[in-house]
């Protein structure tokens, strides 16, 4: 029974994999449109907000279905606590920026297995995705607040770059608690991404150096084999010289000996 239920959960996740990825991409595109198009009419803004709410509702429905199919409910909740918080918290309007967390996690999970052998590609893609989401979120939170230093997408992108790399230039910074929440998440994520990137580069260097060392070792083995062969040939030649092996007679030498013998038997010679 347990295996059957877990199989149902796995089958559901497999079936909704690509639809959820499409919804996540749609959510990100609509959210970017809503944030960047500050001059949108109230009707357009309301339509975009309705699409965002619908997509978020579908993500919440997916979590509810997976929770229903899970056999061990407690294990499912503790193993997907981040998903639960990302679904529940955006119900508060002030935490609407956290909807991007659900989208980010959905896209990352859907594509991580396909590029697991190419860690560098996956890390680069996640870094770009995190940076774009953080820039949109902090701009959405800060733009219309009095005294805000992040009022354009360029400011938001610059702040994201300095924050995710842990540089902290300081010329741009969030002043709202929503923006600071985004900053805290980005700082933690930036440290993790830098650790993964550093580990990937170190692993690549070790692999390259191991390949060079292997090539050098193979060349040394080949040189030693040739040296052994030359030494064996020299030993064989030395053995022949030691035994006093006579050289092969020159061409025409037997005939010359016969002529000399004939001359010696002639009279008067």
Structure overview:
This protein is mainly α and 269 residues long. It has a domain at 1-116. It has ten helices and no strands. It has helices at 2-15, 17-36, 42-69, 73-79, 81-88, 99-112, 119-142, 153-164, 177-242, 253-265. The longest helix is centred in the last third of the chain and has 66 residues, at 177-242. It comes from Saccharothrix syringae (Nocardiopsis syringae).
Per-chain topology:
Layout: H1 2-15, H2 17-36, H3 42-69, H4 73-79, H5 81-88, H6 99-112, H7 119-142, H8 153-164, H9 177-242, H10 253-265
Helix pairs in contact: 2-3, 2-6, 2-7, 3-5, 6-7, 7-8, 7-9
Roughly how many Å apart are the termini? 123 Å
Order of helices and strands: HHHHHHHHHH
Kindly state the mean pLDDT as a whole number? 76
Q: Tell me, briefly, the overall form.
A: elongated
User: Number of helix segments?
Assistant: 10
**Main β-sheet, in a few words?**
none
Q: Helix coverage percent of residues?
A: over 70%
Report the portion of residues in β strands: under 5%
Number of strands: 0
Low-confidence stretches: none
Radius of gyration: 39 Å
Question: What structural class results from the helix and strand content?
Answer: mainly alpha
Keywords for this structure?
single chain, mainly alpha, elongated, transport, VG_K_chnl
Please sum up the structure shown:
Residues 245-269 are annotated as: Disordered. The chain is an all-alpha fold and 269 residues long.
């Amino acid at each position: 029974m347990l295996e059957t239920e877990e199989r149902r959960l796995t089958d559901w996740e497999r079936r909704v994999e690509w639809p959820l990825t499409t919804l996540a991409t749609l959510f990100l595109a609509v959210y970017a449109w809503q944030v960047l198009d500050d001059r949108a009419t109230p009707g357009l803004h309301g339509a975009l907000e309705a699409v965002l709410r619908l997509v978020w509702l579908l993500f919440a429905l997916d979590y509810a279905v997976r929770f229903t199919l899970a056999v061990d409910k407690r294990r499912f909740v503790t193993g997907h606590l981040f998903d639960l918080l990302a679904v529940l918290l955006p119900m508060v309007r002030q935490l609407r920026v956290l909807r991007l967390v659900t989208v980010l996690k959905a896209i990352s999970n859907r594509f991580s297995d396909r590029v697991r052998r190419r860690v560098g590609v996956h890390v680069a893609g996640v870094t770009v995705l995190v940076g774009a989401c953080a820039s949109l979120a902090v701009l959405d939170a800060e733009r219309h607040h009095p005294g805000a230093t992040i009022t354009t997408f360029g400011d938001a992108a610059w702040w994201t770059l300095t924050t995710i790399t842990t540089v902290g230039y300081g010329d741009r910074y969030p002043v709202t608690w929503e923006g600071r929440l985004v900053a805290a998440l980005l700082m933690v994520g930036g440290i993790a991404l830098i650790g993964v990137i550093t580990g990937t580069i170190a692993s690549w260097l070790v692999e390259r150096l191991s390949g060079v060392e292997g090539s050098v070792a193979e060349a040394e083995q080949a040189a030693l084999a040739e040296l052994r062969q030359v030494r064996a040939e020299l030993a064989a030649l030395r053995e022949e010289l030691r035994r006093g092996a006579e050289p092969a007679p020159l061409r025409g030498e037997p005939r010359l000996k016969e002529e000399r013998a004939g001359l010696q038997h002639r009279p008067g010679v």
